[in-house]
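Good day; I would like, with your permission, to put a structural problem before you. A protein sequence and the structure tokens that stand for its backbone fold form the material at issue. I would ask you to consider whether the tokens describe a fold that such a sequence might reasonably adopt. I set the record out below, with my sincere thanks for your time.
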Amino acid sequence: MTQITAVASSVGQLIDQVHQRFASANLSYGHGTDNAWDEAVYLVLWMTDSADDESSLALSVSAEQVEEVLALSDQRIEQRMPLAYLLGCCQFMGYEFLLEPGVVVPRSPIGYLLDGPEQPWLPKQVRRILDLCSGSGCLGIVAAHRFPQALVTLVELDPVAAALARENVQLHALEDRVTVLEGDATQLFAGLQAGWDLIITNPPYVDKADMQVLPAEYRHEPVRGLAGGDDGLLLVDDFLRVLPEQLADNGAFICEVGASSGAVNRKHTDLPIEWLDLPHGGEGVFLLEGEALCSHTAARNS
């Protein structure tokens, strides 16, 4: 049981209490927050249904709310489980998504590239969007909100994640525009109708060496949702082989590879890859534009 010297009576006091516990517990972050304070704020505001605003700090909390929050903080500390799994949902890019253990927690910096200010490399007209290795469906759903006229296809191998993606599509009332395909992403990608305006993917990209030293929090996530083989590019290499046939001439391919960016640079020196700036954090997201890829493929085949 949680040992406390005083019972918090306001949102601000409860945040301070949880923050002290998290800060002294040597936790690892990276599943929506990157420090103990933000993690405490997120937990308390979510559980008390309070706005993310300074005015919320003075709001009263009941003894029951304090007990629930501290019980969850106990689980977070003792089990080293990502907070999103304990809550059963998460916020990503201002949207709510259902989540459950066994599905990778949404956190890709690609979300900011899609939902932020207009990007010069985005196609002027986006009618068809493909999200490979979609997991919970978060990126494809954010893209559907960003491009309200586009049809979106999500591709996911794991049946649990695919089922969850369908639930999230329903949660966002996007059934008329977003389709979930369950199966091997490489095979499905090659067999789909060509001409995609925007292809996004956050595939498994953690290399073998890094998989051996993952913090405990990350070990709660599914191995096949993280592990990308010896160099982290097991699926990425397959996607790049199929890409010239599937991407529209004026389309864009956006792929996250995180710390495996060095492997991409070593293996694919011939491709016109552009590494994107990520002002909101993260690493290793690259762009391949259809026009540049088409010119490269033509020159290579001539």
Remarks:
- Strands lie at 89-92, 95-98, 128-132, 151-156, 178-182, 196-201, 247-256, 274-275, 285-289.
- Residues 11-87 form one domain.
